[in-house]
C-alpha cells in the first residue's frame, strides 16, 4: 500500500518537475505563453530534454506549414485573383516542409544545433515573405504570423543547445 | 534538466507554483507522516495526492489557449536575449533574419531563374549543385592540390553529410572527383564530418575525421588512401579499428569534433587537438599518439577561454616571426609564434590569437589575454561571412594556405530554387604581420592572377560627396587593386579643427549606418555590383575617424544594406578597424565574383567577405563606381581594375578523371 502511494507521489512529482522544465525553458523564449501551450499540448513534452523540446517545436512548425499549404490550396479556388502570390507562398511553405524541417530535425538530433537554428529561423523568414507578397491584403495573416511566432520560440530553444 | 528542488511537498506551498522558483523543501510533513497510524497515513497521502494533482493541473494548463488554434498577440518587436548575449559574447549576425529586411520595399522579390543563375560564381570553389559547408583535409600530394568538403548529395540545405572531393594544379582551376567518403559504417552512419590530414615521416598520409555514430555520438576516426600511387587519391579506406577516439569523461557526446592536423613533439610523438566545451567554456583537448590508432589524452588542455561556448574547427599552427614563408605544422623554435584558432558555435565567427606554445606540456598562452580566442574583441580572419576555416601547409610552395566556408545570406527557398548553397573563399596565404607582430596577414593566392584578363588603370581626384562611374565594361568578375590618399590639406584642416568631434572610440562599421552616412574623413572607396542609378550597390570602403589625441583610426567596411531589393536576404554592414602604420598609404583589394565580394585592406590586415544578391545590378547592368562621401575632404584614388576570367571548374566525369590519371 505504502509502495503504491509512494509511486503515485513520485509520478506526481515527475509531472510537476517536467512542468517546471517546460516553464524554465519557456521563460527564456520571447513568448512564454505560446511556448508553454505548444509544449504542454504535446504528449512528448512531459519527458523531453531541451533537445526533445526543440524537436517538438520543429514538429509544430511542420504541422503549421502543412496546414498553411492546405489553406493555400483552397484559396486558389476561392480567390483566383491571388494566384501569383499564392504560388510564391506555396514555394515558400514547401521550402519549410521539405528543407527547413528535415534540416532542423537532423541537426538537433545529431548535436549540431546551429544548422537547426538556420532551419527554424528560415521558417519564419519564408512565412514573412509569403505574407508580404499580398501587399497588405493577405488572407493568410493569422497563419503566417503564427509561423513567425513559433519560429521565434523554436529558435530561442535551439540556441540553448549551442 | 529537471530540478530536484521541484519535488517536495506541494501541500506546503501557499504561493502560485508558476511563480515560485523551486525552493520547496518542507521536512515537517515527512516527520508528521511517520508518527501517524496507518489509516491516518492513508488519508494524508490521498490528501497530498489530491492537492498534488490539482496543482499539476494548474501548472500544466496555465497559459494554454482555450482553442486549438494558437492565439498570437501582436508583438513584432520581441527579441530573444540569447545565451550568447547573456554570456557577453556578441550576438550572431544571423539575428538580422528575425525581421525581413524591407525598409526600401514593401513587396517581396520573387526570385526567377535568370536572377538566380547569375549568382553562381565564376572562379570560386563550389560543387556543381547542392549544399557544402566546412573545408576538410586540404593537402598537396604528388602534384595535385586536394580539397575535400562537407557535402550534402541530396539537398541544398545541410544534411546527409559526406566528403566531397576535388583536385587542382593551382588552387584555382578545379576538377570535381567522386565522393571520397560516405556514411557507411556504424561509427559515421549519421555523418562523415570534418577532419584534417597529416603527412607521416615516410611521405604517406592519414586522415582523422569526426564521425557521428549510429547513436549520434561524436567520435574520431582514422582513414587513409587506398592506393598511395594514385595521385588523385580517389579511394579511401577506413581503419578497421575505428573509432580511435571517443568522448572522454567529462565531455558530452555531442561536444567532440573536428580533429586537427597532427604535429611532431620534441620526443617524436604526434600530437593533435580537438575542440570542445565544458559548460560555457570553450576548450581544446590534447592527445598524443605514435600510430594514430591509440592515443594518450593530456590532463591539461591546449587552452580554454570562459564564456566562449563550443569551439568548432580548432586550428593550431606555427608562423614565422621573421620570414614570409609558411611553416610546416611541426616546426617550432625561437623564431616562431603559434596561432590558436577556433570557430565559435555561438556567434558563427572565426577567431584567432597569436601566442606561445609549450611543447613540454602541450599548452599555449596568448600574447594578449585581453583579446584571447573567442572574446568579442579578439581578432578574426575575416569580419564578414566566413566560418569553419582551416589551414594547411603547402609543401609545394612553402606556404600556409587558408580555406573557409562562405555560406549563403539568402533564404533557403532561394537556395532550393537555385539548387545550391555555399562557396569556399578564394584560398589565402597566411603569415604573421612582421611589422605589427600582433596579427596575421592574408592574401589571395598568387595563382589567382592567372585569371586576370584585360585591365585599366585609373588615377583621379574624388571630391567630397561625389560618385564616379568607372568605365570597365563588365563588372561582375573583377580584381581591383587600389591606393587612396586623403589630400594633406584636408587632413590637416580636419585634425586641427576642434569642432570636428573625435569619434574613433565609438565608431564601428556595424553601427555607423553604412556608407551613406557622411563623416569628416570618409567613407570613401568603391561601390561594386551597382546599377547605373545606384538603386542597388555594395560599397566597400575606408572610414577614417578622428581620435581623442588627434590621431586617426582607420576602419574598413562593407555595406550590404542596399545591395539588393530582395527582402528575404540578410544585409549586414561588416567591418573592423585596420592598423595603418606610419608612412603607409591606404590600400584596398577587392575580388568581385557575382554573389561574393572579398575585400582586403592594408595588404590583408583586415579582410571582409560578403554575399550579395542584386536583382537589378546583374549581367550587363552591373557597374562599378568609386565614391567619396566625406563632407569636406578630397581623396586621390589610384587603382587598376582587371576583368577576371572564369576558372571553368570541371564537373565530374569519368573521362576527365581517366585523362587526369594518365598525366
From TrEMBL, chain B:
It is found in: Vacuole lumen. It holds the Pfam family INV_N. This is beta-fructofuranosidase. Keywords: Glycoprotein, Glycosidase, Hydrolase, Membrane, Transmembrane, Transmembrane helix, Vacuole, Zymogen. It comes from the Eukaryota. The lineage of its organism: Eukaryota, Viridiplantae, Streptophyta, Embryophyta, Tracheophyta. Its EC number is 3.2.1.26. The chain crosses the membrane at residues 40-59. Residues 124-444 form the Glycosyl hydrolase family 32 N-terminal domain.
Amino acid at each position: 500500500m505504502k509502495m503504491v502511494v509512494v509511486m503515485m507521489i513520485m509520478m506526481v512529482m515527475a509531472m510537476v518537475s517536467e512542468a517546471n522544465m517546460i516553464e524554465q525553458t519557456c521563460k527564456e523564449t520571447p513568448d512564454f505563453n505560446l511556448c508553454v501551450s505548444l509544449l504542454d499540448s504535446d504528449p512528448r513534452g512531459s519527458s523531453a530534454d531541451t533537445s526533445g523540446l526543440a524537436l517538438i517545436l520543429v514538429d509544430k512548425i511542420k504541422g503549421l506549414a502543412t496546414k498553411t499549404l492546405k489553406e493555400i490550396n483552397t484559396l486558389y479556388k476561392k480567390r483566383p485573383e491571388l494566384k501569383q502570390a499564392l504560388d510564391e507562398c506555396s514555394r515558400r511553405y514547401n521550402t519549410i516542409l521539405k528543407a527547413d524541417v528535415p534540416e532542423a530535425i537532423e541537426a538537433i538530433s545529431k548535436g549540431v544545433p546551429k544548422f537547426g537554428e538556420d532551419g527554424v529561423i528560415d521558417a519564419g523568414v519564408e512565412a514573412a515573405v509569403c505574407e508580404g507578397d499580398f501587399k497588405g491584403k493577405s488572407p493568410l495573416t493569422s497563419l503566417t504570423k503564427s509561423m513567425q511566432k513559433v519560429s521565434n520560440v523554436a529558435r530561442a530553444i535551439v540556441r540553448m543547445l549551442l | 534538466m529537471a530540478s530536484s528542488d521541484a519535488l517536495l511537498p506541494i501541500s506546503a506551498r501557499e504561493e502560485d507554483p508558476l511563480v515560485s522558483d523551486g525552493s520547496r523543501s518542507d521536512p515537517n510533513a515527512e516527520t508528521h507522516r511517520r508518527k501517524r497510524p496507518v489509516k491516518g497515513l492513508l488519508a494524508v497521502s490521498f490528501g497530498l495526492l489530491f492537492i498534488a494533482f490539482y496543482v499539476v493541473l494548474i501548472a500544466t494548463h496555465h497559459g494554454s489557449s482555450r482553442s486549438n488554434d494558437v492565439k498570437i498577440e501582436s508583438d513584432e518587436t520581441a527579441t530573444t536575449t540569447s545565451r550568447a548575449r547573456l554570456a557577453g559574447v556578441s550576438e550572431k549576425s544571423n539575428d538580422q533574419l528575425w525581421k525581413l529586411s524591407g525598409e526600401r520595399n514593401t513587396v517581396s522579390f520573387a526570385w526567377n531563374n535568370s536572377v538566380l543563375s547569375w549568382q553562381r560564381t565564376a572562379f570560386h570553389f563550389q560543387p556543381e549543385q547542392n549544399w557544402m559547408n566546412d573545408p576538410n583535409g586540404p593537402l598537396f600530394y604528388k602534384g595535385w592540390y586536394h580539397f575535400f568538403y562537407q557535402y550534402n548529395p541530396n539537398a541544398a540545405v545541410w544534411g546527409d553529410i559526406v566528403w566531397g572531393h576535388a583536385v587542382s594544379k593551382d588552387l584555382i582551376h578545379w576538377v570535381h572527383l567522386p565522393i571520397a567518403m560516405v556514411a557507411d559504417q556504424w561509427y559515421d552512419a549519421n555523418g562523415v564530418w570534418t577532419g584534417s590530414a597529416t603527412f607521416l615521416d615516410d611521405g604517406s598520409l592519414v586522415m582523422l575525421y569526426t564521425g557521428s555514430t549510429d547513436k549520434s555520438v561524436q567520435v574520431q576516426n582514422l582513414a587513409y588512401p587506398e592506393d598511395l600511387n594514385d595521385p588523385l587519391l580517389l579511394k579511401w579506406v577506413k581503419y578497421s579499428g575505428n573509432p580511435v577516439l571517443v568522448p572522454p569523461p567529462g565531455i558530452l557526446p555531442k561536444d567532440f569534433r573536428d580533429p586537427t592536423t597532427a604535429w611532431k613533439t620534441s620526443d617524436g610523438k604526434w600530437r593533435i587537438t580537438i575542440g570542445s566545451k565544458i559548460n560555457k567554456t570553450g576548450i581544446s583537448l590534447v592527445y598524443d599518439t605514435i600510430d594514430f590508432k591509440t592515443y594518450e589524452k593530456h590532463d591539461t588542455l591546449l587552452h580554454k577561454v570562459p564564456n566562449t561556448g563550443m569551439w568548432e574547427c580548432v586550428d593550431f599552427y606555427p608562423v614565422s616571426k621573421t620570414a614570409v614563408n609558411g611553416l610546416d605544422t611541426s616546426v617550432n623554435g625561437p623564431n616562431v609564434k603559434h596561432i590558436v584558432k577556433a570557430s565559435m558555435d555561438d556567434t558563427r565567427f572565426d577567431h584567432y590569437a597569436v601566442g606561445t606554445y609549450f611543447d613540454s606540456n602541450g599548452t599555449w598562452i596568448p600574447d594578449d589575454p585581453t583579446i584571447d580566442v573567442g572574446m568579442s574583441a579578439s581578432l578574426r580572419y575575416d569580419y564578414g561571412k566566413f566560418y569553419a576555416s582551416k589551414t594547411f601547409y603547402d609543401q609545394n610552395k612553402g606556404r600556409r594556405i587558408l580555406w573557409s566556408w562562405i555560406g549563403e545570406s539568402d533564404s533557403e527557398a532561394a537556395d532550393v530554387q537555385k539548387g545550391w548553397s555555399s562557396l569556399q573563399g578564394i584560398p589565402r596565404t597566411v603569415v604573421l604581420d612582421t611589422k605589427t607582430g600582433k596579427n596575421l596577414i592574408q592574401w589571395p593566392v598568387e595563382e589567382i592572377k592567372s585569371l586576370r584578363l584585360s585591365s585599366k588603370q585609373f588615377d583621379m581626384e574624388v571630391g567630397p560627396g561625389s560618385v564616379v562611374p568607372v568605365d570597365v565594361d563588365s563588372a561582375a568578375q573583377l580584381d581591383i587593386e587600389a591606393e587612396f590618399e586623403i589630400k594633406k590639406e584636408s587632413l590637416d584642416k580636419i585634425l586641427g579643427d576642434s569642432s570636428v568631434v573625435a569619434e574613433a572610440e565609438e565608431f564601428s562599421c556595424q553601427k555607423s549606418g553604412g556608407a551613406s552616412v557622411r563623416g569628416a574623413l570618409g567613407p570613401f572607396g568603391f561601390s561594386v555590383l551597382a546599377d547605373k542609378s545606384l538603386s542597388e550597390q555594395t560599397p566597400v570602403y575606408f572610414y577614417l575617424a578622428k581620435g581623442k589625441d588627434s590621431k586617426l583610426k582607420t576602419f574598413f567596411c562593407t555595406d550590404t544594406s542596399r545591395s539588393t531589393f530582395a527582402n528575404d536576404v540578410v544585409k549586414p554592414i561588416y567591418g573592423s578597424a585596420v592598423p595603418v602604420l606610419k608612412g603607409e598609404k591606404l590600400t584596398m583589394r577587392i575580388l568581385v565574383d557575382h554573389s561574393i565580394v572579398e575585400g582586403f585592406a592594408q595588404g590583408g590586415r583586415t579582410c571582409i567577405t560578403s554575399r550579395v544578391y542584386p536583382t537589378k545590378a546583374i549581367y550587363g547592368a552591373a557597374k562599378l563606381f568609386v565614391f567619396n562621401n566625406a563632407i569636406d575632404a578630397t581623396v586621390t584614388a589610384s587603382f587598376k581594375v582587371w576583368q577576371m576570367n572564369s576558372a571553368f571548374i570541371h564537373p565530374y566525369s569519368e573521362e576527365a578523371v581517366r585523362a587526369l590519371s594518365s598525366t
